[in-house]
Amino acid sequence: MESLQIRGIGEAIRSVRKSRGLRLEDVADDQISTATISNIERGVGHVNTSKVYYLLEKMGLSMDQIPSILMEQEEAFKELEFNLTAIEAVIAMKKSREALAELENIDLEESHPYAARVEYLKGKAFQFMNNWKRAERCFTSAIRLCNQNDDKENIEAASFSEYGVCCYFQNELEKALEFTNSGLAVFQEEGGRKYVKFVLLRNKVVYLERLGRALEGLNVLQDVWGKMDQIKDIETVLTFYTTRADLLRKTGMYDEAIQYAKEGLGLARINKHYKCMFDLWTILGTLYTSKKQWSKAERCFNTALTARHLLDSEKALTDIYVWLGILSVQQNKWEEAKSFLEQGIANAEKHNDAPKLIYALRVMGDFWKEQDEKQEAIPYYERALQVAKQFHYKKAENRLYYRLSQCYEERNRKEFEQSLLNMYETQLELKNGESDLFEEQ
């Protein structure tokens, strides 16, 4: 008996057994064990043929009935697939509770081809509700089920991707990057949901940017840029433009960054993608601030703010407040700068955005240090350092220890030396034992 035939018989037997409400234990006897029945149902090729015929007879089935049973099962699969597609659309339309209610009523065995997809969709629903831990448990379950069954739709890669998103929103950036890399490792080029690969790459670039690893992010972007015409999701395309412009700014390539920001703005405007328009106008403002073109920078920030009412969340406002503060400092508008920076800190706190909170606090410390009010700067640096330590942001720690050493240099010799020692230790942790031999100039 060929393995393909055994698989079909096994699927038919499982379908009939489940329709009768029987467990494996209910069917097993002295002649056939639960393990053998399970192997037959899963189409394991090395099962003794006599056991297959015995099980068919015990279930009251003949070989002639198998095709019609399989056809009925195929129709049931198509119906379930259609319903799951509709539920996924409901989740995308932010009706997570309604979707969860439907998903909870779908009772599938772990070996069912759609079991992993159900868990994945549950995770997506909980994710939209900001219930990160429940979402993570569902994605973990989906990944486990994909390892047990054939995964032709890249549900495993998608689950790793969304698990990374959950970590990102909980400020666990290293874990977010780790899960994203796992998703890329298991992605099947010949499988379904081909967009998932580009979502994973998009997220990887964002996480690298947040972790301060600009050159690594640019390398990923360079690899993906020639494949942009394959990306159907406009948000993914625009995020690549946004992140590329921001990473180029961080490496001092302002003119090239401006070019990408403007190209992205054109696409965002055509596609009426207001969130990305807001982000790109903000980045363009940061670029003109860096080039000391104050009026252009201010115009960019004000243009971005006109889209404020169109944003799903005000989380993104932190950047614009901080940069308006930086712009005001550059023009010696100290009171305006202080007000903007305070708004940036408050906004980052409100939205539990640890990387942006560290940045806003650091800039506020710089604001006071710039005025030679180093004693005023210290509490902001120390508070930022506390958050950086909590989430293991070593690059941020290193920068903050350096600033604290500047503040303590003429005031507290002991604290000055301790800050330098801490800066040295975090630098060693960042290098993680790497040799200096090939370090560039």
Structural commentary:
Among the domains are: 3-61, Orthogonal Bundle (434 Repressor (Amino-terminal Domain)); 88-193, Tetratricopeptide repeat domain (Serine Threonine Protein Phosphatase 5, Tetratricopeptide repeat); 344-441, Tetratricopeptide repeat domain (Serine Threonine Protein Phosphatase 5, Tetratricopeptide repeat). It is built from 22 helices and no strands. The protein has helices spanning 3-19, 24-27, 34-41, 49-58, 66-92, 96-104, 115-128, 132-148, 155-169, 173-186, 195-210, 214-225, 234-250, 254-270, 274-290, 294-305, 317-330, 334-350, 354-370, 374-390, 394-408, 413-431. Helix 8 (132-148) packs antiparallel against helix 9 (155-169) and helix 19 packs parallel to helix 21. Residues 433-441 have low confidence and may be disordered.
Can you give keywords for this protein?
441 residues; mainly alpha; 434 Repressor (Amino-terminal Domain); Serine Threonine Protein Phosphatase 5, Tetratricopeptide repeat; 22 helices; elongated; disordered C terminus; TPR_rpt; TPR-like_helical_dom_sf; DNA binding
Radius of gyration: 28 Å
Low-confidence stretches: 433-441
Q: What is the rounded distance between the termini?
A: 68 Å
How does the major sheet shape up?
A: none
Topology (elements, then pairings):
Blueprint: H1 3-19, H2 24-27, H3 34-41, H4 49-58, H5 66-92, H6 96-104, H7 115-128, H8 132-148, H9 155-169, H10 173-186, H11 195-210, H12 214-225, H13 234-250, H14 254-270, H15 274-290, H16 294-305, H17 317-330, H18 334-350, H19 354-370, H20 374-390, H21 394-408, H22 413-431
